[in-house]
Write a structure and sequence with these properties.
Elements: H1 5-9, E1 16-20, H2 25-37, E2 45-46, E3 52-58, H3 66-75, H4 78-88, E4 94-95, E5 103-117, E6 121-122, E7 127-136, E8 149-152, E9 159-163, E10 169-174, E11 181-183, E12 195-204, E13 219-220
Antiparallel strand pairs: 1-10, 2-3, 3-5, 4-12, 5-11, 5-12, 5-13, 6-7, 7-10, 7-12, 8-9, 8-11
Helix pairs in contact: 2-3
Length: about 220
């Protein structure tokens, strides 16, 4: 697998890359199955708004099944941080052990997430968010169920890229001022199917980030 910084940097509509089969198929299958087996017992967080529907998440790695922890540990490892530094060209990358806003994401039937730009400032750590990593956990996901991750142009005028949420597909992209993305089409999957992913976010320390540049919450658009 050859992945270059230039390939990442020059991708449209903002720096991004899609990587298939990054993880061991066996380990990721165990991760997925452990979530499905405990889907009603995990300590989910959930807040429904008109722009975020039927989506829940679990940040606390202590409360995740062991099989999920194994993958999360890899995403938080020094080796992975070095990989991100080389790929993105961003130095001084720091992971977030609290997984604020990240962790396991689970969206059910009729669920959606409008196009948005993410929060870029972590109040608890004083760090600036720079990179998103998503790992999809969906086997035999049908296109007619919707669920594609959409990347939009920097002026929000058009959708530029669609990424199916297929199993063992990883998406990495910059968290910039205008990196608009989302999953706005309501899911049309059966009630017993869920769009699952793991999400980890990465930060740097910026001494002179003006308060006016600090976005403490994601901004959504209709």
């Amino acid at each position: 697998m050859f992945l270059s910084h230039q390939q990442y940097k020059n991708s449209s509509p903002f720096p991004n890359i899609v990587i298939d089969n990054f993880f061991s198929d066996e380990e990721l299958t165990q991760c997925m199955q452990s979530i499905l087996d405990n889907i009603n017992n995990l300590e989910w967080k959930q807040q429904d708004y008109h722009f975020q529907v039927n989506k829940r998440w679990l940040e606390d790695i202590v409360k995740m099944p062991l099989e999920v922890k194994k993958i999360m540990w890899q995403l938080h490892s020094t080796e992975f941080l070095c990989f991100l530094k080389d790929l993105t060209g961003i130095k001084g990358i720091i992971d977030d052990p609290l997984n604020i806003g990240g962790g396991i994401h689970c969206t059910g039937a009729c669920g959606k997430l409008n196009i948005h730009k993410d929060f870029n400032y972590n109040k608890e750590t004083g760090l600036t968010r720079k990179i998103n990593v998503l790992v999809f956990l969906n086997k035999e996901w049908r296109p007619e169920w919707n669920g594609n991750l959409e990347l939009w142009s920097r002026d929000r005028s058009q959708k530029v890229k669609e990424i199916p949420p297929n199993f063992n597909k990883m998406v990495i992209f910059n968290t910039d001022e205008d990196s608009y993305h989302g999953c706005p089409a309501p899911l049309e999957c059966p009630d017993d199917r869920f769009r699952l992913s793991l999400a980890t976010y990465y930060y740097i320390h910026e001494e002179n980030l003006d308060e006016s540049q600090q976005r403490h919450h994601s901004e959504f658009y209709d």
